[in-house]
Design goal:
The protein is of the alpha+beta class and 360 residues long. It is built from 5 helices and 13 strands.
């Protein structure tokens, strides 16, 4: 191929930027086989009859993808041979082969399928083994060609295509004996180098190194030595403290007597000094009378103490709860005066979250 044609083809491709997408290389190689039919061949007036053709053609090539839709190919093609007897009763055995350089365009569709079109130049050597080689002559030239095809990606690397190509002006100009064109149909298999990169899951940072990623961390900047929960927040020690309150009630009454307010003040002071603490007031009864009545009485007495903490001392209602147990948890068995006095009681169970976090 002359240098001018090469320069024109290469220069026309410069606006495209070549890059490898998804880890695949832009380079590929391949080869093809097919059937070629020279024209006019037996239709030429100088032909007396046709002989047995050897129409089998083949080619090898290497290509470079400029992008997903355009590439360039350089290869070698052998278009096979054709035989005929001219009117001088001499056998002609003609064939063309040589290097090609062209541009290929691709249009993907339906997943792994694609259409293609190509155009380029064929730097051919055409030869005639006339009379079984006794009158051999040859000539060279540059012939344009165009083509179209449909392909299927067997894998990311392997592609199978059905091709048609049309060659013009396969002429022998030295003696003006051959003016031919060519139609080619064939299959080609190509291999593209490289491998598609596997998708990488995005890495989410854990800025405070507490083991909970930033998208889930509700307590950022937690010290690395602290144990944290699933939300990335520090875990604090929960300490339960039991305070016995000496609360007095009138007989069959749930109203706290004023004489018991000293113990109530002590409990309220503790709760105010520990703002993260909560308290459960547990009420108990002595083993006299019916159990059901004693259960309800213990519930009313526990609720009465809770109301005093809320209404008289200003403790938030969400920090105070109450529950009655009746005679189910006696400190002293029996119903003696001593046992009744011991069992008729109020207990305060304080749960406090310490300010000291749990360390790893």
């Amino acid at each position: 191929m002359n240098n001018t044609l090469k320069a024109v083809l290469l220069t026309s491709m410069l606006p495209f930027a070549a890059n490898a997408a998804d880890g695949m290389s832009p380079w590929y190689v391949g080869g093809g086989v097919g059937i070629n039919n020279y024209e006019p061949n037996c239709d030429q007036k100088t032909m007396k009859s046709c002989g047995e053709d050897d129409p089998y053609a083949w080619d090898v090539f290497a290509g470079y993808l400029l992008n997903d839709h355009f590439g360039i190919e350089l290869g070698y093609r052998d278009l096979g041979r054709a035989e005929w007897v001219d009117y001088s009763n001499k056998l002609n055995d003609v064939g063309a082969k040589g290097m090609n350089l062209g541009v290929v365009a691709f249009w993907p569709f339906a997943g792994d399928w694609s259409l293609s079109a190509e155009a380029g130049a064929f730097n051919y050597l055409i030869s005639n083994n006339k009379q079984w080689g006794t009158e051999y002559y040859s000539d060279s030239g540059v012939a344009p060609y165009v083509g179209a095809g449909i392909g299927y990606n067997i894998t990311d690397n392997l592609k199978l295509q059905a091709k048609y190509r049309r060659y013009e002006n396969l002429d022998e100009d030295k003696w003006k004996t051959l003016e031919m064109e060519s139609n080619y149909w064939g299959l080609e298999l190509s291999y593209r180098f490289g491998s598609k990169a596997k998708p990488v899951a995005p890495v989410i940072a854990d800025s405070d190194n507490d083991g909970v990623t930033d998208d889930l961390d509700q307590c950022p900047n937690t010290p690395v030595t602290y144990k944290v929960d699933a939300n990335g927040c520090p875990i604090y020690l929960e300490v339960e403290t039991q305070l016995d309150i000496e609360a007095k009630f009138a007989n069959n009454s749930a109203e706290v007597e004023k004489s018991s307010y000293g113990a109530m003040t002590e409990l309220a002071t503790y709760l105010k000094q520990h703002p993260n603490s909560t308290v459960t007031i547990s009420g108990y009864a002595s083993n006299t009378g019916k159990a059901d009545y004693n259960m309800k009485l213990s519930e009313r007495r526990a609720a009465g103490v809770a109301e005093v903490l809320i209404n008289e001392y200003g403790i938030a209602p969400n920090r105070v709860s109450s529950k009655g147990y009746g005679i189910t948890r006696p400190l002293m068995e029996g119903n003696s005066a001593e046992a009744n006095a011991a069992n008729r009681r109020i207990e305060a169970h304080v749960t406090d979250i310490a300010v000291t976090p749990v360390l790893k």
